[in-house]
From TrEMBL:
It comes from Arthrobacter vasquezii. This is FAD-dependent oxidoreductase. Coiled coil: none annotated. SUPFAM superfamilies: FAD/NAD(P)-binding domain, FAD/NAD-linked reductases, dimerisation (C-terminal) domain. Residues 13-312 form the FAD/NAD(P)-binding domain. Its cofactor is FAD. Residues 331-415 form the Reductase C-terminal domain. InterPro entries: FAD-oxidoreductase/Apoptosis, FAD/NAD-bd_sf, FAD/NAD-binding_dom, FAD/NAD-linked_Rdtase_dimer_sf, Reductase_C.
Length: 416
């Protein structure tokens, strides 16, 4: 094993995880004027890319590989960022301040960012290793599934009724495939947005021909003698024939490196609101980090695109010793058929909140607000645009609102 330290410099910034968080952190370090060594360690064999299109336009074959890149591939070399695309970090020594890579190299760091993201939760069932059964996270997963779905006429069974399951269902159906979706909830996505609003999306899918089995769980995945999937058996004893199966039952944060290095873990790598871990000089951001939110006073992990960008920026500033805080209101979006949605808010505060609606659920053009003691804690716009700033202002203000004004589509949201 080659133990040469590379780079040798003590002021090196090392980032583990070449996803959107890692790429954003590297770009921010350079934008903020840092001129020392920056190393971005990735294991996927690719330059960093965006995942949201993987279940939408890219899966549909409408978006190019190039459109997925947060920075053009040449950006890294041009900005003197050492991008290692196929070298997994295998251990971190917080005392010696080194990272060991699978290639045998050892990197010294002054500051280290863990941006290792998340991986699909595995389904512990017979048959998950059959041909035609997919987990869904990477560009390669999306490219493989596209090849299977692009010609239409296949029968896809989706296991999981969350965002990714519903997005893949919509795209597969638009490509002319039969789609059956099963999940543990009675209504898709109700863990995040509740059954009443989840029904709006479910109805749109049903209208387009997506079949639902809810609540239902998969008990067995069956295959033929050639090892190719043929069916999914549900807990109700139904056998759903399947040419393809996608398992999308959530993700788990990749905390192994941090755990082995003795960092504090709690549903992700625990960090303060400046994204500092429990170890001196080590930071964590993106899907892997459970960050203390200065407004809610709670630790929360956000598995969304906007958090990867904001987290990457704040982490880089903290690494440079700046007084940065991640205090964004969590934000995410989805596109399913002709439904475009954006959501901002504190998910943890929406439990038992009142939901009020401005606009029409029937017409699928509305803004829903979650209210606690008349204060807006979250808001979601569906096929209504340019209202996120107002929604976030209402949440941030923490003031009591007038429900009549809030729910009247003709009134100015700022006056609610
Ligand atoms: C199909 C799909 C659709 C999505 N759609 C939306 C959407 O519509 N809206 C939205 O807000 N969000 C969406 N998301 C979520 C969003 O993409 C994620 O929140 C974001 O990718 C998180 O970025 P990250 O860099 O923190 O983690 P990741 O994207 O998981 O990147 C982490 C990287 O670290 C690498 N890595 C891990 N361990 C090591 C190691 N030891 N050594 C080297 N490299 C390592 C991994 O291989 C990976 O490349 C979607 C995600 C998926 C998968």
């Amino acid at each position: 094993m080659d133990n040469t330290s590379f780079p040798a410099s003590d002021d090196a910034m090392v980032i583990i995880g070449a996803g959107l968080t890692g790429a954003t952190a590297a770009a921010t370090l350079r934008e903020e004027g840092f001129t020392g060594p920056v190393v971005l360690v990735g294991a996927e064999g690719q330059a960093p890319y965006l995942r949201p299109p993987l279940s939408k336009g890219f899966l549909a074959g409408k978006e190019s590989e190039e459109s997925l890149l947060p920075c053009p591939e040449k950006w890294y070399a041009e900005n003197d960022v050492e991008l290692l695309t196929s070298d997994e970090a295998v251990s971190v020594d917080p005392t010696a301040r080194t990272v060991a890579l699978s290639s045998g190299r050892s990197l010294s760091y002054g500051r280290l960012l863990l941006a290792t993201g998340a991986v699909p939760r595995q389904l512990n069932l017979p048959g998950t290793d059959l041909q035609g059964v997919y987990y869904f996270r990477t560009k390669t997963d999306s490219q493989r599934l596209h090849l299977e779905l692009a010609g239409g006429g296949r029968h896809l069974v989706l296991i999981g009724s969350g965002w990714i399951g519903m997005e893949v269902a919509a795209t597969a159906r638009e490509l002319g495939n039969e789609v059956t979706l099963l999940g543990l909830e009675e209504v898709p996505m109700s863990a995040a947005i509740g059954p009443r609003l989840g029904t709006v999306f479910m109805d749109r899918h049903s209208e387009a021909g997506v079949q639902f089995r809810l609540p239902a769980s998969a008990k067995e995945i069956r295959g033929d003698d050639a090892g190719r999937v043929t069916a999914v058996v549900t807990d109700a004893g139904e056998t759903l024939s399947a040419d393809l199966v996608v398992i999308a039952i959530g993700v788990v944060p990749q905390t192994a490196l941090a755990e082995e290095a003795g960092l504090t873990i709690g549903n992700g790598i625990q960090v303060d609101s400046g994204l500092r871990t429990s170890a001196e000089g080590i930071f964590a951001a993106g899907d892997v980090a459970s960050a203390l939110h200065p407004v809610t006073g709670q630790y929360a992990r956000s598995e969304h695109w906007a958090n990867a960008i904001s987290g990457g920026k704040v982490a880089a500033q903290s690494m440079l010793g700046r007084d940065a805080v991640l205090d964004d209101i969590p934000y995410f979006y989805t596109d399913q058929f002709d439904l475009g949605m954006e959501y901002s808010g504190y998910g943890a505060l929406t439990k038992d909140a009142d939901v009020v609606v401005r606009g029409s659920l029937e017409d699928r053009e509305f803004v829903a607000f979650w209210l606690r003691e008349d204060r807006v804690v979250a808001g979601m716009n569906v096929n209504v645009w340019d209202v996120q700033e107002e929604i976030q202002d209402l949440i941030r203000s923490g003031r009591a609102v007038d429900r009549a004004v809030l729910t009247d589509p003709d009134s100015d949201l700022k006056t609610a």
